[in-house]
Amino acid sequence: MLIDTHCHLDAAEFDLDRDAVHAAALAAGVERMVLPAVAVDRFIQLKTSVARYPGCVAAYGIHPLFVMPAKEADLAELRAWLSNEKPVAVGEIGLDFYLPEIDLQRQTFFFIEQLKLAREFNLPVLLHVRRSVDAILKQLRRFKVPGGIAHAFNGSRQQAEAFIQLGFKLGFGGAMTYSGSTRIRQLAATLPLEAIVLETDAPDISPAWLAGRRNAPAELRQIAEVLARLRGLSLAEVAAQTSRNARAVFPGI
Fold first, then answer.
1. pLDDT digits over 103-135, tens only?
2. Helix (H) or strand (E) holding 253
3. CA angle at residue 216 from 199 to 240, to 5 degrees?
4. Which of 20, 38, 75, 96 is deepest in the core (most CB within 10 A)?
């Protein structure tokens, strides 16, 4: 069994064929999919997707790229959803230093407030860490939460070890499949396998064989095969261990 720890099956890109995309994932052996929210106004669509598709579970949060239109009242609404819906995590939350137009102070405010909610509800977090790993780690040391995943990890080995020491797993997906992604591939090959989980981030971060086309959760099997080759292991070994890792992060899965 494979677990996709980060998949936006509720995204508009799947509106025309969501049933088929989900069926293809199950056929490929992807039996569990964690669907993280990005904004409060998408929570209902996310809940609908989780209810409709077996194997899907929800995380609720406000993505750093969506904080500009967000209101402080959205945090109160998020708190209500965390209380009433019993998700497996708070997410997708974090910081993004790639796009300068997204105000850093506002990002940091929403990130900290959501870390506080994760701590209050004793939930792990799904972290967006694009070009912001050190700033993320700084806040995680201030606001202790029960672990989580550094999604689409692309940092240094030292940063990877810092996450692991804080009880986090590292998410590897499509970026690992490119031969030019030498640092990511080296980390995937040499970090403790117990620290790694698999993800697609579908419809984004397409693997090499899709050449930028829409990603989908069914691609996780081939992504797992890439990790198996990098580590000199069988697909069955990688699938079993990364699934154990995902369940350790998300007891509610």
1. 999 999 999 999 999 999 999 999 999 999 999
2. none
3. 40
4. 38
How many other β-carbons are positioned within 10 Å of the β-carbon of residue 18? 16
Instruction: Note the CATH architecture for domain 2-249.
Output: Alpha-Beta Barrel (3.20)
pLDDT in tens, 173-229: 999 999 999 999 999 999 999 999 999 999 999 999 999 999 999 999 999 999 999
Q: Would you state the structure tokens that stand for residue 220, as one six-digit string?
A: 């996780």
Q: What is the DSSP letter of 106?
A: H
Could you give the CA distance from residue 43 to residue 161 in angstroms, rounded to a whole number? 33
d(CA 11, CA 201): 11
* Distance from C-alpha of 25 to C-alpha of 137, rounded to nearest angstrom: 33
User: What are the tokens at 235?
Assistant: 């697909």
Neighbouring CB atoms inside 10 A of 175's CB total 22
- Tokens 């700084």 correspond to 138
Could you list the beta-strand ranges (E) of the chain. Answer: 2-4, 30-36, 56-60, 89-94, 125-128, 148-151, 168-172, 196-198
Domain ranges of the chain: 2-249
Q: Which helix (H) or strand (E) holds 153?
A: none
